Amino acid sequence: MAKMHAGDFDGGLASLQQAEATYMKAEKLGEAEKQHEYAMIQIMDQAKTKLLISVALFRLGRAADAVTTTEEAIPQLNRVKDDTGINAGIRESATSSLKDAQTLLARLESAH
Question: How far, in Å, CA of 55 to CA of 37, rounded?
């Protein structure tokens, strides 16, 4: 985030993509160890990271990639939002992030 705030969207994009890959690894580890709630938090955080990646991509003039990345985040957030086996607060956070993702997608599509 700091790199993006400083206007370094290339550097910010690289950092966010690295973080997103780390979440993917953590998701697999969490599910393998049957830590379902932890894995769902990781899925939600991965989706939120994708939304930040989308903003960086858009700022770099890669609107089509930004739309695709945002579209990838939405099913992840829906998955967390709809999981009744996890804490309600986690589901509420996913619901809020889902609304943000849908707003972002609409803006990206209108600018694209």
Answer: 28
Q: Which domain holds residue 104?
A: 8-111
Going by C-beta distance under 8 Å and a sequence separation of 6 or more, which residues neighbour residue 37? 85, 86, 87, 90
Looking at residue 33, what is its pLDDT? 44
The closest alpha carbon to 44, from 34, 30, 60, 32, belongs to: 30
CATH of the domain at 33: 1.20.58
Tokens representing 38 are 């932890």
> Domain for residue 94, yes or no?
yes
Q: What is the pLDDT of residues 47-75, one digit of tens each?
A: 999 999 999 999 999 999 999 999 999 99
Total domain count for the chain?
Answer: 1
- Count how many Cα atoms sit within 13 Å of the Cα of residue 74 in the half-sphere of its side chain: 14
pLDDT of residue 45: 96
In a domain, 1, yes or no: no
pLDDT lower than 50: segments of the chain: 33
